Amino acid sequence: MRRGSEVRISARDGLKRRSRCGEAAGATPEVQRNLAIERQFQVGYRHRVYFTDDVFGEGNPLLRTLLIQGAPGRVHKALVTLDAALAQAQPALSEKIAAYFARHPDSHRLVCPPLAIEGGEPAKNSALHVNEIHARLERHGICRHSYVVAVGGGAHLDVVGFAAATAHRGVRHVRVPSTTLAQADSGVGVKNGINAFGKKNFLGTFAPPFAVINDFQLLSSLSARDRRAGMVEAVKVALIRDGEFFAAIEARAPQLAAFHPEAVRWLIHRCAELHVHHIASSGDPFEFGSARPLDFGHWAAHKLEQMSAYTLRHGEAVAVGIALDTLYSARRVGLDPGDAERVLRLLERLGFSLWTEELLRREATGRLVVLAGLEEFREHLGGELTITLIEAIGRGREVHALDEPAVLEAIDTLERRAQSEPRAVP
């Protein structure tokens, strides 16, 4: 087109002005240097969480149905990763997964035997396993129309999800959580990440999985400690979102503490439902703002995990963090002291200890180390420090600062409680 010819720019979308090719009509050189094009667009996500038993069983069609959606008749490649702890606890699982894929060669193909990878928080402390998964994806030609199926606990899902989200700018990822914590909370979310620079989840992505499949049968080999861990996230979401759910957990506490299957399934389903509802309806699923309401009790928990070199399980640290913030809420945001005691008692009835010696560790200046968790919590999200507390059971409230003396009082209360009522957690 020769210079000076006229073009009409996007009349359909409301831009009516005319310009000359190479210059804006009537614009000064200064204005020309600062022209901008701006459009707003949205991307829709479909977030699906399924509940089943024996997902890799011969008669269960759920996974196969999911993998062939959108392209029936095509053979889809799949790479399956397996939490090493789960593989050790259920030694027949790897062969069972391989046999499941072998029964349906017309629709999907397992590119190699399930890849066993170290699980637990230590697996997130370097990029080693992310690089290992990337190498397998490249070697086997896994593309954006293939699948990465991760079977394991929350840390395993974090690592594999991060690898899947960063290969080819995003490979389809199916999560199969194998712990109560992952099935109720972390595994049904949209976050992936690994730790770096001594900070939890410093590297990561927001990438909704293609699907989540909660297989209750996978919980059967968990230790009592790991079965219990996920229950605290249900208490958390009930405290900030649903007072009736909290009361129902109280009523079923004996069955939950004894790990009765139906009670545990009920707890996982309702917790996951509330979590997914928050993601879909909060207006901020990828946390562009400063609030993280689902992280009630987590500012201290993340720091305590780190201080313990991750010998303290995430759920155990969250129980302490919830107890701490509940006591603080009673001191500063109007939570009824009787309701605060209900929260602490429920956590104890479920088998959680509300104390850890890390709460007393001090810096050279004499300041408690755990208090550094406040700035790290703010830094991780950015913007203004925003902490969710509770002004009533089932109703959260956001604050932008914590009164340090009141935090110290809450820690002192937890220490005295632990000394007067020691509780051994099996």
SSE layout and pairing:
Blueprint: E1 6-8, E2 18-20, H1 29-33, E3 49-52, H2 62-67, E4 76-83, H3 84-89, H4 93-102, E5 108-110, E6 115-117, H5 128-139, E7 147-152, H6 154-166, E8 172-177, H7 180-184, E9 191-196, E10 199-206, E11 211-215, H8 224-229, H9 231-241, H10 243-251, H11 253-257, H12 261-281, H13 298-307, H14 314-332, H15 337-349, H16 372-381, E12 387-392, E13 395-399, H17 404-420
Parallel strand pairs: 3-11, 4-5, 4-6, 4-7, 7-8, 8-11
Antiparallel strand pairs: 1-2, 9-10, 12-13
Helix pairs in contact: 5-6, 9-10, 9-12, 9-14, 13-14, 13-16, 14-15, 14-17
Structure characterization notes:
- With 426 residues, the chain is an alpha/beta fold.
- It folds into two domains: 49-221, 3-Layer(aba) Sandwich (Rossmann fold); 288-420, Dehydroquinate synthase-like - alpha domain (Dehydroquinate synthase-like, alpha domain, Up-down Bundle), CATH 1.20.1090.10.
- The longest helix has 21 residues, at 261-281.
- The strands form four sheets. Strands 3, 4, 5, 6, 7, 8 and 11 form a seven-stranded parallel β-sheet that branches. It has a two-stranded antiparallel ribbon with strand order 1-2. A two-stranded antiparallel sheet has the order 9-10.
- Helices cover 42% and strands 15% of the residues.
- It is built from 17 helices and 13 strands.
- Strand 9 and strand 10 form a beta hairpin.
Helical run tally:
17
Number of strands: 13
CATH class descriptor name of the largest domain:
Alpha Beta
The amount of beta strand, in percent, is 15-25%
- Total domains: 2
**CATH architecture title of the largest domain:** 3-Layer(aba) Sandwich
Shape: globular
Sheet of most strands: 7 strands, parallel
Mean pLDDT: 89
Distance between the termini: 79 Å
Low-pLDDT segments, ≥5 res: 1-22
Helix and strand composition category:
alpha/beta
* SSE topology string: EEHEHEHHEEHEHEHEEEHHHHHHHHHEEH
Radius of gyration: 25 Å
